[in-house]
Amino acid sequence: MSITKKQYLFLAMLVLVSFLLIGCINKQVTNDGSKEQQGRVMINNHKRVIEFVTVPQRVVTLNQHATEIMLALGLSDKIVGAAHMDGEIQAEYKEQYNKIQVLSDRYPSKDTLLAVKPDFIYGYNDAFEDKWIGTVDVLEKQNIKSYITQGGLKEHATVQEVYNDINNIGKIFHVEAKAQDLIKNIKNEIQLVKEKTDIIDKRVKFMVIDAAAGNQVLIAGRSLESDLIRLAGGDNVFGNLEKSWGKTDWQEIIRRNPEVIVINEHAASSAQETIQMLVKNPALSEVEAIKKRRFVIFSFNDMNGGIRSGKTVQWLAKAFYPQLFQ
């Protein structure tokens, strides 16, 4: 039987409509949010590639910067537990944070962690040790995925690692637009500082003391913290260190003569005690920063990077160059 021209055109149109309908159905599945269909994400982290087929639903954040990033991205409903909070949560997120279960002042025990049945853990690298919550490989065998803050993994870390973390968390939870907005806000805060400090002829010379005992001083080299201070208009007198952290002695500090000393405040080291030790040491009396009492206390939350990074750069710049912000 021969097919007329009209019949041929009708069949062709029928096939075309069928393809269009299939396309619309497929598009609807993708856009309407079957997380199983749209959720496959590959993330590079800690010398491994993590595959996320679905969006994590039961998250434990193990450091304050991780908790605050999740809250800033509108993901409070995903958090089943938080830990290792080193200070006050950012004011705009307090109401959300108060609804979250705090598992521990420091890192939780393995039993406490597993009791909340997490499917995703996000925090600093030192948490993922066997003495704390276990290694990433052990957690993976328990069907718990993990993400380690990049600033704690990479030597010579910069603020770019903060942007990478926010971007990666945005991808994992399918909130890329919010992540990009957050990154943009931090960059804008830093740019406002740059516009003021670009006119400076002589940048402030600083050093960072993390801890001190006897004649041994733990200092920052090319670390994330040092990069934030650099963005505020400072030059690290120990910027030639190849590692993020290193040790020196008082004699070398005298020789390099910093104009400002940034002192880290955390559970293992009191900044005020460190300051008292510095000012009471007669051998250090001619160090410029000590002679003029130019000390800046850096909290653990500020040094770790996160949503605070832009504001941290701003208040550091005000401490270094108050005349620019009058």
From TrEMBL:
Family matches, as Pfam families: Peripla_BP_2
Superkingdom of this protein's organism: Bacteria
Residue stretches making up the Fe/B12 periplasmic-binding domain: 58-326
Residue ranges the record marks as coiled coil: none
InterPro entries, per database record: ABC_Transporter_SBP, ABC_transptr_periplasmic_BD
Record's signal peptide: none
Assigned protein family: Belongs to the bacterial solute-binding protein 8 family.
PANTHER family according to UniProt: IRON(III) DICITRATE-BINDING PROTEIN, VITAMIN B12-BINDING PROTEIN
Protein name: ABC-type transporter, periplasmic subunit
Classification of source organism: Bacteria, Bacillati, Bacillota, Negativicutes, Selenomonadales
